Amino acid sequence: MSLLARLAPHLPYVRRYARALTGDQTTGDHYVRVALEALAAGERSLDANLSPRVALYRVFHAIWLTSGAQLEARRDEGSAHADDASQRLLRIAPRSRQAFLLTALEGFTPTEASQILDCDFAEVERLISEAQAEIDAELATEVLIIEDEPVIAADIEALVKELGHEVIDIAATRGEAVDAVARRTPGLVLADIQLADGSSGIDAVKDILSRMDVPVIFITAFPERLLTGERPEPTFLITKPFQPETVKAAIGQALFFHPRRTQKAA
Fold it and tell me: Is the pLDDT of residue 168 over 80?
């Protein structure tokens, strides 16, 4: 199998990553092209001990790091045309940004990210934590929790507040959720599926999204009701019982990458 054939399935994703890393599609594509040219010319090679995808990202990083400092000088160039997520990414320290994107956007494990970045596991975890802290501090918002179990609702509320967000309401039914957003617009919705009066959190979210564009995270014991193979499926879905760190990471990612999120008023 040719080199191009081996790498072809992964190229759209490394281009996506390069765009997020650099904040610009043209610049990102340039670095991907240089990496491929280096591979084709034999100047770089894929590590046979790694999966093709991990090895490709590793080569891309080796190329990017040789002149990545130039990209930092371009942060403000064309900023008026960059989306909010790109601008937020470029404000994160470069090394932390890499670790965050590799795990949050590209879905690599911390171990795979350490292989790509050529550092140890502990360093990757530290970088991810640094990026997450910067994101949490910048993206504080108002949160609506849709959950009918008081103990679980209290646990989620505590996690949300720990991240610096404000809980504007806790709704136990579809009707309460709709009433809550009529009173105050949330910046994020955390929703269960099966609610107190037999109503559906899915329907509650549909009602809310018909009125406003807001990121949603489903936290449910019934993921199969959402993972049907049909589209659209939710981007953020957490299964109960949940790990606190999983919820925290999902909140940061949902707020960070939501394209139309408006900043909280000062």
Answer: yes
Closest CA to 20 of 115, 99, 130, 73: 99
Percent over 70 (pLDDT), the chain: 84
| Rounded Cα–Cα distance for residues 31 and 53 (Å) | 16
Tokens found for residue 253: 């990612």
Contact 193, 220 (CB under 8 A): yes
- Residue pair 116/49 in contact by the 8 Å Cβ criterion: no
Q: Per-residue DSSP letters for 57-114?
A: HHHHHHHHHHHHHHHHTTTTTTGGGS-HHHHHHHTS-HHHHHHHIIIIIS---HHHHH
Given a cut of 50, is residue 245 above it in pLDDT? yes
Q: How far is CA 238 from CA 29, 68, 186, 193, 232, in A?
A: 33, 35, 20, 11, 16
The order of strands in the sheet holding 166-171 is 166-171, 142-146, 188-191, 216-220, 236-239
Torsion over CA: 20, 22, 26, 29 (sign)? negative
Can you read off the two tokens belonging to residue 68? 């990545």
Selection from 96, 179, 192 nearest residue 152 by Cα = 192
Burial of residue 72, with CB atoms counted within 10 A of its CB: 0-12 exposed, 13-18 middle, 19 or more buried: exposed
Cβ neighbour number for residue 264 with a 10 Å cutoff: 13
